[in-house]
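Hi V.,

Quick status before I head out on leave. The structure for the redesign project is tokenized and pasted below; the design run finished overnight.
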């Protein structure tokens, strides 16, 4: 059995790590390079860096920051935000990232997923999906969650798997920052329909929420931000607890 992964997420805006609730009301959480090194040192399995305003501001992601993080950490890290071409993916990987996360760009150009996976391998491609429930249906949103689409979450995840995604990073906008638990029912359904790993994001507030996301939600990785940034749940403490609950985890 593959071990479950603990993945701190650094949302980057204006060169700083920020965190909000339901994608709004952002507050400063520190220097992303310092935080990245801390997480690598204390046993995080991977990191995700998301330039959360790159797409809305129609600019490139933060290449210099990617390079500085790459010089400080020895664990895999994924970079997302404003990535809309194979050339940008190449630039990010050259600067030290192990994977890229694409979201809005593949909604508007689905074949981009195929292009990236063919050029660099599916192991490099994480397709991020931001979704919330609208009239009982999970609908995909783009541009940092600000623009709704008509795409069904589960159908879209399946399509991206078919087009070469190596992983799906699913963020429940309804749960984001609320600390009330992950969207385990949706995650379990997604797990039944996909054969690639699923990273769960949105709602982590307690150590038991991680137990739930790995058992009830059947996720392969649990991603969180504020509970790690503000030392509410130290990564080593979380890993020890998960082991005590018979969750296969790296130590």
């Amino acid at each position: 059995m593959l071990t479950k992964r603990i993945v701190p997420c650094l949302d980057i805006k204006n060169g700083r790590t920020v965190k909000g609730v339901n994608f709004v009301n952002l507050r400063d959480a520190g220097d992303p390079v310092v935080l990245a090194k801390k997480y690598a040192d204390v046993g995080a399995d991977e990191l995700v860096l998301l330039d959360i305003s790159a797409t809305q501001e129609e600019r490139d992601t933060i290449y210099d920051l990617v390079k500085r993080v790459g010089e400080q950490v020895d664990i895999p890290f994924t970079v997302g935000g404003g990535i809309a071409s194979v050339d940008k993916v190449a630039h990010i990987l050259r600067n030290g990232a192990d994977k890229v996360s694409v979201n809005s760009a593949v909604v508007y150009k689905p074949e981009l997923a195929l292009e990236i996976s063919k050029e660099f391998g599916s192991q490099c491609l994480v397709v991020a999906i931001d979704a919330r429930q609208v009239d009982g249906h999970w609908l995909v949103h783009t541009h940092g969650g600000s623009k709704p689409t008509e795409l069904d979450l589960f159908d879209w995840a399946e399509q991206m798997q078919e087009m070469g995604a190596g992983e799906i990073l699913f963020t429940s906008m309804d749960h984001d920052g609320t600390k009330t638990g992950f969207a385990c029912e949706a995650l379990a359904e997604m797990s039944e329909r996909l054969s690639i790993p699923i990273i769960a994001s949105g709602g982590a507030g307690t150590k038991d929420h991680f137990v739930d996301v790995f058992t009830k939600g059947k996720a392969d990785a649990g991603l969180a931000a504020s509970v790690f940034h503000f030392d509410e749940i130290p990564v080593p403490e979380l890993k020890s607890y998960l082991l005590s609950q018979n969750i296969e985890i790296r130590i």
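Above is the designed sequence. The domain at 5-244 is CATH 3.20.20.70 (TIM Barrel).

G. will cover questions while I'm gone.

Best,
W.
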